Protein backbone atom coordinates (compact mmCIF):
# COMPACT_ATOMS: atom_id res chain seq x y z
CA UNK A 1 0.00 0.00 0.00
CA UNK A 2 1.40 3.36 -1.03
CA UNK A 3 0.53 5.13 2.18
CA UNK A 4 2.88 7.25 4.21
CA UNK A 5 3.34 5.28 7.42
CA UNK A 6 3.18 1.92 5.69
CA UNK A 7 6.05 3.01 3.46
CA UNK A 8 8.03 4.61 6.31
CA UNK A 9 7.84 1.40 8.34
CA UNK A 10 8.79 -0.67 5.30
CA UNK A 11 11.89 1.53 5.10
CA UNK A 12 12.71 0.58 8.70
CA UNK A 13 11.43 3.74 10.37
CA UNK A 14 9.35 3.80 13.55
CA UNK A 15 6.72 6.20 12.32
CA UNK A 16 5.36 8.71 9.88
CA UNK A 17 3.24 11.22 11.77
CA UNK A 18 1.78 14.66 12.09
CA UNK A 19 1.21 17.51 14.47
CA UNK A 20 -2.35 18.30 15.43
CA UNK A 21 -4.09 20.80 17.69
CA UNK A 22 -7.04 20.64 20.04
CA UNK A 23 -9.51 22.88 18.15
CA UNK A 24 -9.05 20.69 15.06
CA UNK A 25 -10.35 17.62 16.87
CA UNK A 26 -13.93 18.90 16.56
CA UNK A 27 -13.77 18.47 12.75
CA UNK A 28 -14.91 14.92 12.09
CA UNK A 29 -13.58 14.78 8.54
CA UNK A 30 -10.20 15.94 9.82
CA UNK A 31 -10.19 13.43 12.66
CA UNK A 32 -11.02 10.58 10.31
CA UNK A 33 -7.84 11.17 8.31
CA UNK A 34 -5.81 11.94 11.45
CA UNK A 35 -6.84 8.47 12.64
CA UNK A 36 -5.77 6.78 9.41
CA UNK A 37 -2.87 4.74 10.71
CA UNK A 38 -1.82 3.75 7.20
CA UNK A 39 -0.62 7.36 6.89
CA UNK A 40 -0.02 8.43 10.51
CA UNK A 41 1.45 6.37 13.32
CA UNK A 42 2.54 9.33 15.45
CA UNK A 43 1.06 12.60 16.74
CA UNK A 44 2.59 15.76 18.19
CA UNK A 45 0.56 18.37 20.10
CA UNK A 46 1.18 21.62 18.22
CA UNK A 47 0.42 23.78 21.24
CA UNK A 48 -1.19 22.11 24.21
CA UNK A 49 1.90 20.73 25.95
CA UNK A 50 3.75 24.05 25.85
CA UNK A 51 4.57 25.98 29.02
CA UNK A 52 1.77 28.56 28.73
CA UNK A 53 -0.75 25.74 28.37
CA UNK A 54 0.62 23.46 31.08
CA UNK A 55 1.83 25.78 33.88
CA UNK A 56 -0.05 29.06 33.38
CA UNK A 57 0.77 30.16 36.90
CA UNK A 58 3.63 28.99 39.03
CA UNK A 59 3.01 25.52 40.42
CA UNK A 60 -0.46 25.22 38.85
CA UNK A 61 -0.45 22.56 36.16
CA UNK A 62 -3.20 22.07 33.58
CA UNK A 63 -2.95 19.04 31.34
CA UNK A 64 -6.42 18.87 29.80
CA UNK A 65 -5.37 19.97 26.30
CA UNK A 66 -2.36 17.67 26.19
CA UNK A 67 -4.39 14.82 27.64
CA UNK A 68 -6.92 15.16 24.82
CA UNK A 69 -4.16 14.79 22.21
CA UNK A 70 -2.78 11.75 24.04
CA UNK A 71 -6.25 10.19 24.21
CA UNK A 72 -6.74 10.81 20.49
CA UNK A 73 -3.42 9.12 19.69
CA UNK A 74 -4.03 6.19 22.02
CA UNK A 75 -7.34 5.38 20.33
CA UNK A 76 -5.31 4.43 17.29
CA UNK A 77 -2.14 3.15 18.98
CA UNK A 78 -0.21 6.11 17.59
CA UNK A 79 3.13 7.09 19.12
CA UNK A 80 3.42 10.54 20.68
CA UNK A 81 6.24 13.09 20.60
CA UNK A 82 6.11 15.45 23.60
CA UNK A 83 6.53 19.09 22.59
CA UNK A 84 8.01 20.78 24.59
CA UNK A 85 9.50 21.37 28.04
CA UNK A 86 11.58 24.55 27.64
CA UNK A 87 11.21 27.13 24.85
CA UNK A 88 11.50 30.93 24.71
CA UNK A 89 8.05 31.27 23.04
CA UNK A 90 4.59 30.66 24.44
CA UNK A 91 5.87 31.23 27.94
CA UNK A 92 3.55 32.58 30.61
CA UNK A 93 4.46 36.07 31.77
CA UNK A 94 5.23 34.84 35.27
CA UNK A 95 8.29 33.13 33.77
CA UNK A 96 9.43 35.93 31.45
CA UNK A 97 8.79 38.79 33.87
CA UNK A 98 9.59 37.12 37.15
CA UNK A 99 13.16 38.42 37.43
CA UNK A 100 14.18 35.16 39.02
CA UNK A 101 17.78 34.55 40.01
CA UNK A 102 19.84 31.63 38.70
CA UNK A 103 18.96 29.16 41.44
CA UNK A 104 15.27 29.99 41.43
CA UNK A 105 14.92 29.79 37.65
CA UNK A 106 16.75 26.46 37.57
CA UNK A 107 14.38 25.12 40.18
CA UNK A 108 11.42 26.43 38.14
CA UNK A 109 12.77 24.65 35.04
CA UNK A 110 13.32 21.46 37.01
CA UNK A 111 9.82 21.50 38.48
CA UNK A 112 8.22 22.27 35.12
CA UNK A 113 10.03 19.51 33.20
CA UNK A 114 9.73 16.99 35.97
CA UNK A 115 5.99 17.54 36.46
CA UNK A 116 5.22 17.65 32.73
CA UNK A 117 7.23 14.57 31.79
CA UNK A 118 6.02 12.64 34.87
CA UNK A 119 2.40 13.34 33.99
CA UNK A 120 2.88 11.59 30.65
CA UNK A 121 5.28 8.90 31.87
CA UNK A 122 5.07 5.77 29.75
CA UNK A 123 2.86 7.41 27.12
CA UNK A 124 5.38 9.45 25.16
CA UNK A 125 8.22 8.00 23.09
CA UNK A 126 10.22 11.21 22.69
CA UNK A 127 10.32 14.59 24.34
CA UNK A 128 11.54 17.83 22.82
CA UNK A 129 13.05 18.79 26.16
CA UNK A 130 14.76 21.86 24.74
CA UNK A 131 13.33 23.75 21.78
CA UNK A 132 15.24 26.31 19.69
CA UNK A 133 18.23 27.08 21.95
CA UNK A 134 20.30 28.72 19.22
CA UNK A 135 20.38 31.86 17.12
CA UNK A 136 21.02 31.34 13.40
CA UNK A 137 24.70 32.32 13.80
CA UNK A 138 25.22 29.51 16.31
CA UNK A 139 25.35 31.68 19.42
CA UNK A 140 22.96 30.81 22.21
CA UNK A 141 19.59 32.51 21.98
CA UNK A 142 19.25 35.22 24.61
CA UNK A 143 16.15 33.73 26.21
CA UNK A 144 15.30 34.38 29.84
CA UNK A 145 16.70 30.91 30.52
CA UNK A 146 20.10 31.54 28.90
CA UNK A 147 20.57 35.07 30.18
CA UNK A 148 19.81 33.92 33.73
CA UNK A 149 21.44 30.47 33.89
CA UNK A 150 23.77 30.16 30.90
CA UNK A 151 23.53 26.62 29.55
CA UNK A 152 22.67 25.22 32.99
CA UNK A 153 18.98 25.27 32.14
CA UNK A 154 19.64 22.75 29.37
CA UNK A 155 21.31 20.18 31.61
CA UNK A 156 18.79 20.78 34.39
CA UNK A 157 15.87 20.19 32.02
CA UNK A 158 17.40 17.08 30.46
CA UNK A 159 18.24 15.55 33.85
CA UNK A 160 14.76 16.29 35.16
CA UNK A 161 13.16 14.71 32.09
CA UNK A 162 15.33 11.58 32.37
CA UNK A 163 14.44 11.15 36.04
CA UNK A 164 10.74 11.67 35.31
CA UNK A 165 10.48 9.10 32.50
CA UNK A 166 13.63 7.00 32.04
CA UNK A 167 12.18 5.31 28.91
CA UNK A 168 11.52 8.51 26.98
CA UNK A 169 14.01 9.59 24.32
CA UNK A 170 15.22 13.09 25.14
CA UNK A 171 15.66 15.51 22.24
CA UNK A 172 16.89 18.98 21.52
CA UNK A 173 14.86 20.39 18.62
CA UNK A 174 15.70 23.36 16.40
CA UNK A 175 15.34 24.89 12.93
CA UNK A 176 18.06 25.88 10.46
CA UNK A 177 20.20 22.98 11.64
CA UNK A 178 19.03 21.04 8.57
CA UNK A 179 21.94 22.43 6.58
CA UNK A 180 25.51 22.05 7.77
CA UNK A 181 26.91 25.38 8.94
CA UNK A 182 27.34 27.52 12.03
CA UNK A 183 24.05 26.64 13.70
CA UNK A 184 24.33 22.88 13.08
CA UNK A 185 27.94 22.98 14.28
CA UNK A 186 26.86 24.75 17.43
CA UNK A 187 24.36 21.95 18.05
CA UNK A 188 27.06 19.33 17.53
CA UNK A 189 29.27 21.14 20.01
CA UNK A 190 26.47 21.42 22.57
CA UNK A 191 25.85 17.68 22.33
CA UNK A 192 29.55 16.95 22.82
CA UNK A 193 29.61 19.20 25.87
CA UNK A 194 26.52 17.55 27.36
CA UNK A 195 27.93 14.09 26.72
CA UNK A 196 31.24 15.05 28.34
CA UNK A 197 29.31 16.19 31.41
CA UNK A 198 27.21 13.03 31.55
CA UNK A 199 23.98 14.85 30.77
CA UNK A 200 21.34 12.61 29.15
CA UNK A 201 20.66 13.34 25.46
CA UNK A 202 19.23 10.85 22.96
CA UNK A 203 18.23 12.71 19.84
CA UNK A 204 18.23 15.83 17.72
CA UNK A 205 15.04 17.05 16.10
CA UNK A 206 15.35 18.86 12.79
CA UNK A 207 12.20 20.95 12.50
CA UNK A 208 12.39 21.27 8.70
CA UNK A 209 10.12 24.21 7.99
CA UNK A 210 11.30 24.54 4.40
CA UNK A 211 10.59 26.78 1.42
CA UNK A 212 9.77 25.31 -2.01
CA UNK A 213 12.96 25.01 -4.05
CA UNK A 214 15.18 25.61 -1.02
CA UNK A 215 15.57 22.27 0.74
CA UNK A 216 19.20 22.27 1.90
CA UNK A 217 21.47 20.03 -0.14
CA UNK A 218 23.36 19.10 3.04
CA UNK A 219 20.29 17.81 4.94
CA UNK A 220 21.43 14.17 4.92
CA UNK A 221 24.98 15.15 5.90
CA UNK A 222 23.72 17.28 8.78
CA UNK A 223 21.60 14.39 10.08
CA UNK A 224 24.57 12.06 9.75
CA UNK A 225 26.75 14.46 11.74
CA UNK A 226 24.31 14.18 14.68
CA UNK A 227 24.04 10.42 14.31
CA UNK A 228 27.83 10.20 14.39
CA UNK A 229 27.66 11.49 17.97
CA UNK A 230 25.70 8.38 18.93
CA UNK A 231 22.27 10.00 18.74
CA UNK A 232 19.10 9.33 16.80
CA UNK A 233 17.51 12.06 14.69
CA UNK A 234 14.00 12.85 13.49
CA UNK A 235 12.35 15.26 11.08
CA UNK A 236 9.99 16.80 13.62
CA UNK A 237 7.98 19.63 12.01
CA UNK A 238 8.08 19.18 8.25
CA UNK A 239 6.29 21.58 5.95
CA UNK A 240 7.39 23.19 2.66
CA UNK A 241 5.81 26.57 2.06
CA UNK A 242 5.53 28.75 -1.03
CA UNK A 243 4.56 32.28 -1.92
CA UNK A 244 0.87 32.10 -2.83
CA UNK A 245 -0.89 31.45 -5.12
CA UNK A 246 -0.11 27.81 -5.70
CA UNK A 247 0.74 27.06 -9.32
CA UNK A 248 1.23 23.69 -11.05
CA UNK A 249 4.96 24.43 -11.26
CA UNK A 250 5.25 25.24 -7.56
CA UNK A 251 3.24 22.16 -6.60
CA UNK A 252 5.49 19.99 -8.79
CA UNK A 253 8.63 21.45 -7.22
CA UNK A 254 7.10 20.99 -3.77
CA UNK A 255 6.49 17.31 -4.53
CA UNK A 256 10.17 16.93 -5.48
CA UNK A 257 11.21 18.75 -2.32
CA UNK A 258 9.16 16.40 -0.14
CA UNK A 259 10.83 13.48 -1.93
CA UNK A 260 14.26 14.94 -1.17
CA UNK A 261 13.51 15.26 2.55
CA UNK A 262 12.10 11.75 2.83
CA UNK A 263 15.07 10.27 0.97
CA UNK A 264 17.47 11.95 3.38
CA UNK A 265 15.71 10.34 6.36
CA UNK A 266 15.50 7.03 4.55
CA UNK A 267 19.23 7.07 3.86
CA UNK A 268 20.21 7.79 7.48
CA UNK A 269 19.58 4.61 9.40
CA UNK A 270 19.10 6.34 12.75
CA UNK A 271 16.59 8.84 11.39
CA UNK A 272 13.69 7.27 13.26
CA UNK A 273 10.75 9.06 11.70
CA UNK A 274 9.15 12.05 10.04
CA UNK A 275 6.43 14.33 11.44
CA UNK A 276 4.45 16.83 9.37
CA UNK A 277 3.60 20.14 11.08
CA UNK A 278 -0.01 19.27 10.35
CA UNK A 279 -1.07 17.48 7.21
CA UNK A 280 -3.67 19.86 5.73
CA UNK A 281 -3.35 23.45 4.55
CA UNK A 282 -6.63 24.08 6.37
CA UNK A 283 -4.85 24.02 9.72
CA UNK A 284 -1.27 24.94 8.79
CA UNK A 285 0.48 27.56 10.93
CA UNK A 286 2.23 29.00 7.85
CA UNK A 287 -0.26 31.61 6.54
CA UNK A 288 -0.64 33.08 10.01
CA UNK A 289 3.11 33.37 10.51
CA UNK A 290 4.63 34.10 7.09
CA UNK A 291 2.64 36.81 5.27
CA UNK A 292 1.69 35.83 1.73
CA UNK A 293 2.89 32.25 2.11
CA UNK A 294 1.09 28.96 2.50
CA UNK A 295 0.27 25.76 0.67
CA UNK A 296 2.90 24.01 2.77
CA UNK A 297 1.17 20.70 3.50
CA UNK A 298 0.63 17.51 1.45
CA UNK A 299 -3.18 17.85 1.64
CA UNK A 300 -5.05 20.98 0.59
CA UNK A 301 -7.64 22.97 2.55
CA UNK A 302 -10.38 20.60 1.40
CA UNK A 303 -8.45 17.54 2.59
CA UNK A 304 -7.57 16.50 -0.98
CA UNK A 305 -4.11 15.06 -1.60
CA UNK A 306 -1.70 17.35 -3.46
CA UNK A 307 1.24 16.26 -5.63
CA UNK A 308 3.32 16.54 -2.44
CA UNK A 309 1.62 13.39 -1.11
CA UNK A 310 2.98 11.38 -4.01
CA UNK A 311 6.30 13.14 -3.50
CA UNK A 312 6.47 11.62 -0.03
CA UNK A 313 5.45 8.23 -1.39
CA UNK A 314 8.23 8.46 -3.98
CA UNK A 315 10.79 9.32 -1.28
CA UNK A 316 10.18 6.13 0.69
C1 LIG B 1 3.55 26.87 16.30
C2 LIG B 1 2.10 26.40 16.26
O1 LIG B 1 1.91 25.56 15.14
C3 LIG B 1 1.18 27.59 16.20
O2 LIG B 1 -0.18 27.18 16.29
C4 LIG B 1 1.49 28.56 17.32
O3 LIG B 1 0.72 29.73 17.18
C5 LIG B 1 2.96 28.93 17.31
O4 LIG B 1 3.75 27.76 17.37
N1 LIG B 1 8.51 25.74 15.84
C6 LIG B 1 8.01 25.00 16.88
C7 LIG B 1 6.53 24.88 17.05
O5 LIG B 1 8.77 24.35 17.60
O6 LIG B 1 6.17 24.77 18.42
C8 LIG B 1 5.80 26.03 16.42
O7 LIG B 1 4.39 25.75 16.50
C9 LIG B 1 6.26 26.23 14.99
C10 LIG B 1 7.72 26.56 14.95
From TrEMBL:
InterPro entries: GH (IPR017853), GH10 (IPR044846), GH10_AS (IPR031158), GH10_dom (IPR001000). Residues 8-315 form the GH10 domain. Pathway: Glycan degradation; xylan degradation. The active site is at 237 (nucleophile). Its EC number is 3.2.1.8. One of its GO terms (molecular function) is endo-1,4-beta-xylanase activity. Keywords: Carbohydrate metabolism, Glycosidase, Hydrolase, Polysaccharide degradation, Secreted, Signal, Xylan degradation. The keyword Signal applies. GO terms for biological process: xylan catabolic process. It catalyses: Endohydrolysis of (1->4)-beta-D-xylosidic linkages in xylans. It is found in: Secreted. GO terms for cellular component: extracellular region. Transmembrane segments: none annotated. It comes from the Eukaryota. Belongs to the glycosyl hydrolase 10 (cellulase F) family. This is Beta-xylanase. The lineage of its organism: Eukaryota, Fungi, Dikarya, Basidiomycota, Agaricomycotina.
Amino acid sequence: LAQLNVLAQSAGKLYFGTATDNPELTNTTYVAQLSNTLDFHQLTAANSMKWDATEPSRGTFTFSGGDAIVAQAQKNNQLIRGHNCVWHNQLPSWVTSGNFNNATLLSIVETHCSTLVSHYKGKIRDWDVINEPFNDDGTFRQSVFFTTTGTSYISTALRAARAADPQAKLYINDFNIEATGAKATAMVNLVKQLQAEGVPIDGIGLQSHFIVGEVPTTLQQSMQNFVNLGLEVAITELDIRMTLPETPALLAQQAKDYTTVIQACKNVQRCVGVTLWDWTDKFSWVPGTFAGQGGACPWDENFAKKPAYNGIVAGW
